[in-house]
């Protein structure tokens, strides 16, 4: 039984290590959007290249994150976590020195592989190291410090872009890794799961990542060669079907399909797809809108987006407690409606928009909707399956959220009619942004409707603590 106490020096070192590791991936996902306009100008990249700068990372991360967790269980969580941190840092260095958009996109895909190795390990190390009496508090501290990192991420990203340059958005990960790795090797105990057996589901992981990559390519390049796009779309859908078939037939699948026998688990993951599709599309386009159309600097745009994260940091724990008392039905109904209202309020954000009168109200409403929704959503995922499968359920839900975000980043510009040079043309981008926000609001509403149909009026209290 793990026996590290949180008040001990080793306990504090373990917390520091896991927070540093998870913060690398978290910061990277929040600051890159702020840097996109400057990356486009410096590397002479079109909108498709900017989409791939975000999505190359998300494809490999979403496709391999479940495999990364399985590797940690088999070969040692600390070992795989350290490999992931080093891998992520090396890929970040390649991003920072990339001479063109093609190299940057390839390096971002490598970053996603590192993220898939370190992300599952950070929380698993806490679970495996701390005494059961301290585990809940340790998870809370890990979550809280991670929230602080998410809150300062856009501000730090904007400061780096306007100051030393966008390359430092990636290079910042190198010193973080140099601090994290020796602390992990010295102070974090190794752990694994002796019950793990059988082969790794490498075929499932490859098919999943391939399906995401091909569908994303078809969406981003839809305005190009029609034959190539059609072949990519068909191949992507074929890979997705093959993934499901493989997962149903393998004795040790990466994603056991029987877990979806839980109607509530299936419903909540459908909601997750809608929620994080809208969220991923919003933050990708909002950072561009504030800089391209409203005229903000990178630092001002990053700072402007802080209210949503600050509200999440301050109020998510209370939202989770409320959902424990009243059940998930009301939060999962009200939350999407409030978020959709925030998206629609962003339609007021155009040339000459006032931050106080136009931008801030939209972000505050969106943030309150996210507070109402996200913590109960996470808790309901964990509460909808047996405790023994909580880790698997969390991993599937995490992968679903990231896959939804990358598909949204690929699809929204197409749906909104954005051309390859749209981010260089403020007027055209503003018109397309309005259409995209309407689409995002529609996804929130669909998620709310889907949830109501799936639950069929039944209320079930969520168990567990949201992290």
Automatic annotation (TrEMBL):
Protein name: Putative Multidrug resistance protein stp
GO biological process: response to antibiotic
One Gene Ontology cellular component annotation held by this UniProt entry: plasma membrane
Localization (cell): Cell membrane
A Pfam short name: MFS_1
Domain Major facilitator superfamily (MFS) profile: residue ranges: 14-467
Molecular function per GO: transmembrane transporter activity
Keyword terms, alphabetized: Antibiotic resistance, Cell membrane, Membrane, Transmembrane, Transmembrane helix, Transport
Membrane-spanning residues: 12-36, 48-68, 80-99, 105-126, 138-160, 166-188, 200-220, 226-246, 267-288, 294-317, 329-347, 359-387
Membrane association type: Multi-pass membrane protein
Species name: Streptomyces afghaniensis 772
UniProt-listed CDD domains: MFS_MMR_MDR_like
Main localization category: membrane
């Amino acid at each position: 039984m793990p026996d590290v106490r949180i008040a001990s020096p080793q306990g504090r070192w373990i917390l520091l290590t896991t927070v540093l590791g998870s913060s690398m991936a978290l910061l990277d996902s929040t600051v890159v959007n702020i840097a996109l306009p400057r990356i486009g100008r410096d590397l002479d990249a079109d909108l498709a290249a900017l989409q791939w700068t975000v999505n190359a990372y998300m494809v490999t991360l979403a496709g391999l994150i479940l495999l990364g967790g399985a590797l940690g269980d088999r070969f040692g969580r600390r070992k795989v976590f350290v490999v992931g941190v080093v891998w992520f840092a090396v890929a970040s260095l390649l991003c920072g020195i990339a001479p063109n958009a093609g190299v940057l996109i390839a390096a971002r895909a490598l970053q996603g592989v590192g993220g898939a190795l370190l992300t599952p390990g950070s929380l698993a190390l806490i679970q495996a190291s701390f005494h059961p009496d301290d585990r809940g508090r340790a998870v809370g501290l890990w979550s809280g410090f991670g929230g602080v990192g998410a809150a300062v991420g856009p501000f730090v990203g904007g400061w780096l872009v306007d100051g030393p340059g966008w390359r430092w958005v990636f290079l910042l990960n190198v010193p973080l890794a140099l601090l994290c790795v020796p602390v992990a090797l010295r102070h974090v105990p190794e752990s694994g799961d002796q019950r793990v057996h059988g082969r790794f589901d490498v075929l499932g992981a490859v098919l999943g990542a391939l399906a995401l990559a091909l569908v994303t390519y078809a969406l981003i390049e839809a305005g190009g060669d029609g034959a190539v796009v059609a072949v990519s779309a068909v191949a992507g859908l074929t890979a997705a079907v093959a993934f499901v078939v493989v997962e149903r037939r393998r004795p040790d699948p990466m994603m056991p399909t029987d877990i979806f026998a839980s109607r509530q688990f299936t419903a909540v993951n459908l909601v997750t797809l809608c929620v994080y599709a809208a969220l991923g599309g919003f933050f990708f386009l909002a950072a561009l809108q504030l800089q391209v159309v409203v005229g903000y600097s990178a630092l001002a745009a990053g700072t402007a987006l802080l209210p949503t994260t600050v509200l999440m940091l301050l109020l998510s724990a209370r939202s989770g407690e409320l959902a424990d008392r009243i059940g998930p039905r009301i939060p999962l109904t009200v939350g999407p409606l409030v978020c959709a209202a925030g998206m629609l309020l962003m339609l007021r954000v155009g040339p000459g928009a006032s931050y106080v009168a136009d931008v801030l109200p939209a972000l505050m409403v969106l943030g309150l909707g996210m507070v109402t929704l996200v913590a109960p959503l996470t808790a309901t995922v964990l509460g909808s399956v047996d405790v023994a499968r909580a880790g698997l359920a969390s991993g599937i839900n995490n992968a679903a959220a990231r896959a939804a975000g990358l598909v949204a980043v690929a699809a929204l510009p197409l749906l909104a009619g954005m051309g390859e040079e749209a981010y260089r043309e403020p007027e055209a981008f503003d018109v397309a942004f309005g259409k995209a926000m309407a689409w995002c609001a529609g996804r929130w509403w669909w998620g709310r409707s889907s949830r109501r149909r799936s639950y069929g009026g039944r209320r079930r209290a969520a168990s567990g603590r949201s992290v």
